[in-house]
Every structure is written in structure tokens, then in C-alpha cells.
Write a structure and sequence with these properties.
Layout lengths: L1 H10 L7 H19 L4 H24 L5 H25 L4 H24 L14 H8 L1 H23 L4 E3 L2 E2 H51 L1
Antiparallel strand pairs: 1-2
């Protein structure tokens, strides 16, 4: 079995050993290390968490450069992103119990919007949840087709939650007046993170509307088939 695995790795037909997926496994290990240190040790958590997030850039480039894009890799990447942020928010709920409801709401919107959008994308035959038709919502089209916009929103969202995490332990170096670095990061990234949540809601509504169109088309097709059967 080991020989077959090594052979397939050399021949390049084992997607589990594709370079982007190997990077994905490294991201998972780093994320798990950050989860372990997160409740008590902010400095190693900072290193592990952002190394995991940073490698997300390279697995995409590797997939395109080596022609090793796979559905498995896309799922691995998306799940690592979602679970990483989710586990960080778990800890934030523990650190800031006063804001628990808002953390829960953020998680619920993020998971629900991505899940329903991915499912509807599969129903319509799309290969990626980021692939949208030109006649769909223009905000989502800009968000998913402009890499700079997508990266900026996702990066600011991660910075917001992680800055809240670091702020629980200390302010960081003072940068403006009496405002520390981590508090400033919260102030600057917070509005962008909130806007990303609004986009998630728009994504969820758009996916529901597309799902309705699929249902209506299937009902029309079934009615037409029944009418044709009666005519015969």
C-alpha cells in the first residue's frame, strides 16, 4: 500500500499528495496548534493562526501554477477558513460574554450563507461557490470576481476578530494618543467586518432566490410533462 502511495505521488495522480493539498494539511496543523494555545498564550497563537491564514495565499497560487486545482482542495480550503474563524469566535465568546449573542449571530450568518450558496451553486451545476453568473447580484459579482476586494474584506474580517482576541490580553504598543495597536485594529477593521456580514446576508438572500427559481423551473417542467402525458 505504501509503495502504491509513493508511486501515485511520483506519477502525480494522487490528489491527496498534490502540493496545494499538502499546504492545506499544514494549514490544518497550524490551526489546531492555535486552538490549543488560544485560551492562554496569545503570542504563539498569533504565530500559528496567521501562519495558517498566510499559507492560504500560497495554496491557491500553487494550484494554478502546477495545474493541481481539485474539488477536494477547494473543500479543504473553505472548511479550514470557516472552522478557523469559528473556533476563534468561540474563544471570543468566552472572553467577552457580554457580546455572546453578536458572536453567535455572526457565526450563524457566515455558516448559513456559505452553506446555502454552495448548495445552490451545485444545484445549478457550478464547480465553485465563487462562480456567479453576470446577471446575478452586482455586489456579489464584484466581491467574488475582484481578488483585491475579496482579499481586503476577508483580511479585515480576520484582523477584526483576532485584534479583539489580542486586546483581551493587552493593548499593544501605543500608536495614537492613548490608543494601542490592537484597539486601533479593531476600530479600523470593524466596519469592514460588518460590511462583510452584510454581504453574507445578501449572498444568502440571492441563493434563496436562485433556489426558488430552480424549484419553479422544476415544477413547470413537471407540469408540462404531466400535460404531455395526458395528451398522449
Amino acid at each position: 500500500m505504501l509503495c502504491d502511495l509513493l508511486k501515485s505521488a511520483v506519477e502525480g495522480d494522487n490528489i491527496y499528495l498534490f502540493v496545494p493539498n499538502l499546504i492545506g494539511y499544514a494549514r490544518i496543523i497550524l490551526a489546531l496548534l492555535s486552538f490549543y494555545t488560544m485560551p492562554y498564550y496569545p503570542t504563539p497563537t498569533l504565530i500559528f493562526y496567521f501562519l495558517s491564514a498566510f499559507l492560504d495565499v500560497f495554496d491557491g497560487y500553487a494550484a494554478r501554477y502546477l495545474n493541481q486545482s481539485t474539488k477536494f482542495g477547494a473543500l479543504l480550503d473553505q472548511l479550514t477558513d470557516r472552522i478557523g474563524t469559528l473556533c476563534l469566535i468561540f474563544v471570543l465568546g468566552y472572553f467577552y460574554p457580554k457580546y455572546m449573542f453578536w458572536f453567535q449571530l455572526s457565526v450563524a450568518i457566515d455558516i448559513a450563507s456559505h452553506w446555502i450558496h454552495t448548495q445552490v451553486s451545485l444545484m445549478t451545476g457550478k464547480t465553485s461557490h465563487k462562480t456567479i453568473d453576470l446577471n446575478e447580484n452586482p455586489i456579489l459579482r464584484l466581491y467574488y470576481t475582484n481578488r483585491i476586494v475579496l482579499f481586503s474584506f476577508c483580511f479585515a474580517n480576520e484582523v477584526f476578530y483576532f485584534a479583539l482576541y489580542m486586546l483581551y490580553f493587552y493593548e499593544g504598543p501605543i500608536v495614537i494618543g492613548s490608543v494601542g495597536f490592537w484597539r486601533l485594529c479593531v476600530y479600523l477593521s470593524g466596519p469592514v467586518s460588518a460590511a462583510k456580514t452584510v454581504i453574507s446576508v445578501i449572498q444568502m438572500v440571492a441563493a434563496c432566490m436562485n433556489c426558488k427559481e430552480i424549484d419553479m423551473a422544476e415544477r413547470r417542467a413537471a407540469a408540462a410533462a404531466a400535460k404531455a402525458a395526458k395528451a398522449n
